[in-house]
Amino acid sequence: MAESKDKKGKQAPEEREAWGNHCEFFLTSLGLAVGLGNVWRFPYVAFQNGGGSFLIPYLLMLLLVGLPAFFVELTVGQYARVGANKVFGRMVPALKGLGYGMLLVRFYVNIYYVVVCAWALYYLCVGFTSNLPWQFCGDHERNTIGCYSKRLVDDCMADETLPEGTVMTYYNGTCLTNQEFCGLFGLTWSEEGGEETCLNKTVELAFKSLYRRVSPSEDFYNRVALGLTYDYKGNQYTWENFGPMKWELVGCLAATWVLVALSLFKGVSSLGKAAYVITLSPYFILTALLAYAAPRAGASAGIIEFLTFKFDDFKSYDIWSTAASQIFFSLSVGYGGQLALSSYNQFTNNCHRDAFIVGICNSLTSVFAGIVVFAILGNLADGKDISEVVTQSIGLAFVAYPEATISMDLPPLWSFLFFFMLINLALSSICSGVQTFIAFILDEKPEWTQHRLKIVFGSCFFYFLLGLPMCCRGGIHLFKIFDSRCSSSLLLLSLIEVIMVAWVYGADKFLGNIAEMKMKLSPVLKMYWKSMWLFVSPVIMTVVIILRWIKTEPMTWKNGPWKEDVYEYPAGVQIVGWIFELSPTIVTLLYPIWVVKRYREKGYTDTSKLLERILQPSDSWEKTTGAALSEAKINEAFYDDSVYKVSPVLTKKVDEDEEPKEEEATASKEKGEEKMTEL
User: Fold this and answer.
1) Which residues fall within 8 angstroms of residue 462, CB to CB, at 6 or more apart?
2) Is the pTM higher than 0.85?
3) pLDDT tens across 540-557, in order?
4) Alpha helices in 11-51 (DSSP H)
5) Closest by Cα among 138, 31, 18 to 431
6) Which pLDDT band, with edges at 50, 70 and 90, does 52 fall under?
7) Torsion of the alpha carbons at 464, 466, 470 and 475, rounded to the nearest 10
8) CA distances from 39 to 277, 411, 604 (A)
9) Cβ of 130: how many Cβ atoms within 10 Å?
């Protein structure tokens, strides 16, 4: 849209962006909520916490914690029509730092989250072969000495020249008889001792206890994809020996950021169009995977294992605290992302309906993904204990599933579909995350809107540079710090947000703002939201935060299959992790000191009046919304100070980031009733 002139003759920036239609917002919000965690974290967490019995506290916590916090973010963003960096300073000036704390978390996540997308892109590219590259052992440049697969043993046993009764195993890239294998370790083997057991006099030793046995897919992930393992013996890079750059990953990271930049080429307009693909395509692929895996052997056993109720688990507080954490992180609350997306809505959009639909769809997606994943893991287990093939987080996506594709019909096709789905899941979250960062910049400097395209490409390039260390061969260790610590403060930030809305700003006043946006809530719903915001959600979130901090352990890396194969990160690295975790909270809690200092400098020396001033909404809180101005004037109000003169009793508008003028501070001090705009 063409630029206009303000009353001072200056160039006014373009109007604030808006969604092309409501469907674009809904899909983008859903895409931000439904991410990689739904596919690789939820299934493992659910399985470890009782399977089907975990679903009850999970869905209950959606109603008690997830939806109340989610609805707050959507409502605040839509009402104020600005990002997190501005909205809280207008709502409660003392807590403006909360927005900066949220954005700092989002900044951290934007750096590392896209690296997963780069890994998936790498797998997608190398999977375009008739024989998938992660199905082989025996290559000294690509595998380790412990590479082993039951499939390879079956190939050894298929040798028709073997004498009858010969039992084979696979070790060091070679087919060996069990006698030959045990002989390598100075042991013996007998049929009475067990098929995979060596004898040391009278002591039985399992084969897998004699060497570090890893699957071909795990070998590929560690040595080829990441470059973490640097020799045939299985030694890995550490913090002390970080290793050189892996240029294939650099190229994939660059390509990923190009995709992000193209998705944001025209702001929320192009992001909304991209959401039709990146948000919806994973559902089609998950359905196709389930249709293929369900009829195959082991699928029903895997699904039953995932959904089986274990009622004794309800007695443990761990399952309840884990459910609260999982539903909270799954909805992407506390990053400022959902808030920023809703700020581009029409003022009268029914975000109450959106909160329920997105929240429920997100949870159902997690359950559906869990069923699909465990059907595939059931195929992979093929009668064995399902726990032997279940791995957590990244391993589920880049080790267990690639291993499962080997036995599928048309393995390259299923490999392509799975990693294409991972790329879209990652893009749906990272694009919204970068848009949140761009909204922060443009809300701080609205006059830069005309340079938005430069900001988009500049931001993507900046994040690309920050992600390069994770493309080193030891980069997974840096990734682990970001993944373990960067989001840990979200619960605390959201707790502060809910308390601010319910207790400082006022739950009744907030419900009044909801009514201004033409959302009609029944008395029952009003009572539900008030009870959640005032009591239930804060109590649950406080308990979960305390339990998480009590159970915090040093960061480690599992560098082998044995229990003792654990690499604990150095003390300096642990400190950096704590800095990542605590810095958003520190920004939030220390910012009020700056606010108090500035107000005291401008005449608010009486403590009671000072607290009253900084804990009340600023003048700009309700003057930039559709409640004060016509819809046609909203964007003008966002940029033009003169629009704020809607009442003769209002003082001259001061931009919220400018220092209040002396005469305004003096007048406010004398009268005690005049409102000074926020710092």
Assistant:
1) none
2) yes
3) 999 999 988 888 889 999
4) 22-33, 36, 42-48
5) 31
6) confident
7) 160
8) 18, 20, 53
9) 6
Which tens digit of pLDDT belongs to each residue from 81-90?
899 999 999 9
| Cα separation, 435 vs 245, whole angstroms | 29
Tell me the average pLDDT of the chain. 87
- pLDDT tens-place string over residues 293-321: 999 999 999 999 888 887 777 777 788 88
Q: Cβ(532)–Cβ(68) under 8 Å?
A: yes
- Quote the CA–CA distance of 592 and 94 in Å, as a whole number: 5
User: Could you give the dihedral angle defined by the CA atoms of residues 101, 106, 108 and 111, in that order, rounded to the nearest 10 degrees?
Assistant: -160
Task: Show contacts of 228-237: CB within 8 Å, 24+ apart.
Answer: 228/473, 228/474, 228/476, 229/144, 230/473, 231/144, 232/140, 232/143, 232/144, 232/145, 233/144, 233/145, 234/144, 234/145, 234/146, 234/560, 236/474, 236/559, 236/567, 237/472, 237/473, 237/474, 237/477
The string of DSSP letters for 593-638 reads HHHHHHHHHTT--SHHHHHHHHTS--TTTTTSSTTTS-GGGHHHHH
User: Helix 571-601 vs helix 607-614: angle between axes, to the nearest 10 degrees?
Assistant: 110
Closest C-alpha among 556, 103, 569, 533 to residue 340: 103
